[in-house]
Amino acid sequence: MKGHIHSIESFGTVDGPGVRFVVFFQGCPMRCLYCHNPDTWAIGTGTEYSVNELLELFEKNRSFYRSGGITATGGEPMLQIDFLIELFTAAKKKNIHTCLDTCGITFNPNNSIYLEKLDKLLAVTDLVMLDIKHIRLKEHIELTKQPNTNILEFAKYLDTNKVNVWIRHVIVPNYTDDETGLKELGHFIASLSNVKALDVLPYHGMGAVKYQQLGIKYPLEGVEDLPKENAVKAKQIILDAIKEARTNASSIS
């Protein structure tokens, strides 16, 4: 089996715990307004790699990954779920930590064949980094051109299956920075028991140059980078909402 791979980063430090071998999968159904990698959107393109070829590259620098492992990101890696299962299965046989960085958009709770494949994948996945773009449906569609219904259901499915999760949320000025939405996100996270970390990241427009290279208009042209302290404040709002929701739930029970 061959996977369609956009690129590979040998020493990733922000894509899971430790130093990581990061595989960027080609193809994504989302069209996030702030996407840094529009060159990963097209499906069926990219460089073809076998699992053995990827693991051979990993082994060349294995000593650097002692506290890390392999991260599959994109694009959306679960678009190539069969290849992803093969990659993570082979990695676990070599005692390699596996991390899946996903937006969860492919989750289909009504497809038994898909769920069977997903369960195989989760069985060999140590950590899921789940991007929640926006907690509300209307705003999520405006931001990504896709609904978030199945994404939130995917988060619940991971919780049911006791898969460790890191939540990621990007603060985009005038899109994801309203206090009400941040509190709603916190209340949702509070309903999950498997969340091990929360990353709240500030928007930046560094990906705009790729749009120019591809001849695509950058959707957020003119939007200034968010100061880091604003992301810190947003994270605190989410954390306070998590605490509030869990306190209320405990008092009721």
List keywords for this structure.
39% helix, 253 residues, alpha/beta, TIM Barrel, 8 strands, eight-stranded mixed beta sheet
Question: TL;DR?
Answer:
The chain has 253 residues and is of the alpha/beta class. Helices cover 39% and strands 21% of the residues.
List the helices and strands and how they pair.
Layout: E1 2-12, E2 20-25, E3 47-50, H1 51-60, E4 69-73, H2 81-93, E5 97-102, H3 112-123, E6 127-131, H4 137-144, H5 149-160, E7 165-171, H6 179-190, E8 195-202, H7 208-214, H8 228-252
Parallel strand pairs: 2-4, 4-5, 5-6, 6-7, 7-8
Antiparallel strand pairs: 1-2, 1-3
Helix pairs in contact: 1-2, 2-3, 6-8
Describe this structure in words.
By secondary structure, the protein is an alpha/beta fold. The protein has a single domain, classed as Aldolase class I (TIM Barrel, Alpha-Beta Barrel). The protein is built from 8 helices and 8 strands, in the order E-E-E-H-E-H-E-H-E-H-H-E-H-E-H-H. The protein has an 8-stranded mixed β-sheet with strand order 3-1-2-4-5-6-7-8. The N and C termini lie far apart (50 Å).
